Amino acid sequence: QVQLVESGGGLVQPGGSLRLSCAASGSIFTIYAMGWYRQAPGKQRELVATIASGGRTDYSDSVKGRFTISRDNAKNTVSLQMNSLKPEDTAVYYCNADLWTKTLVKGDYWGQGTQVTVSS
């Protein structure tokens, strides 16, 4: 079993900052990419940012320059620092990990989601 648990969501005013964290635990052999996705009401889930095991990052155009993704490979954690938040960043944010389990099953795992609301 593999679990991804997110934390750090909440309500923030436009222009403010939030930091999301996600910890992966369980029967993990190795994690390739980790990332954050988001889903706003009435919209499809979209990529926010990803980070490979070697540190290469990728961001959606809508968050470049405002969000920073980082990971700790030793702790199997990934974080998302979100600055200069806008109302359009409001969504449920999901952590994702592409990994091999100790039973050599490769899969895509998701957290339960954490709500981020940007509003005055």
Tell me about this structure:
The chain has 120 residues and is mainly beta. 0% of the residues lie in helices and 60% in strands. Strands 2, 4, 5, 6, 9, 10 and 11 form a seven-stranded mixed sheet that branches. A hairpin with a 4-residue loop joins strand 7 and strand 8 (77-82). It is elongated.
DSSP strand tally: 11
In the predicted model, the low-confidence regions spanning at least 5 consecutive residues are none
The number of helices is 0
The main pleated sheet reads as:
7 strands, mixed
Strand content: over 45%
What is the CA-based Rg, rounded? 14 Å
Distance N to C terminus: 40 Å
State the shape.
elongated
What is the H/E string? EEEEEEEEEEE
Residue-averaged pLDDT, rounded? 96
Short description, anyone?
With 120 residues, this protein is mainly β. It has strands at 2-7, 10-12, 18-26, 28-39, 46-51, 57-59, 67-72, 77-82, 91-101, 106-110, 114-118. The chain is elongated.
Which features characterize this protein?
seven-stranded mixed β-sheet; elongated; four-stranded antiparallel β-sheet; 11 strands; mainly beta
Chain-wise SSE layout:
Blueprint: E1 2-7, E2 10-12, E3 18-26, E4 28-39, E5 46-51, E6 57-59, E7 67-72, E8 77-82, E9 91-101, E10 106-110, E11 114-118
Parallel strand pairs: 2-11
Antiparallel strand pairs: 1-3, 3-8, 4-5, 4-9, 5-6, 7-8, 9-10, 9-11
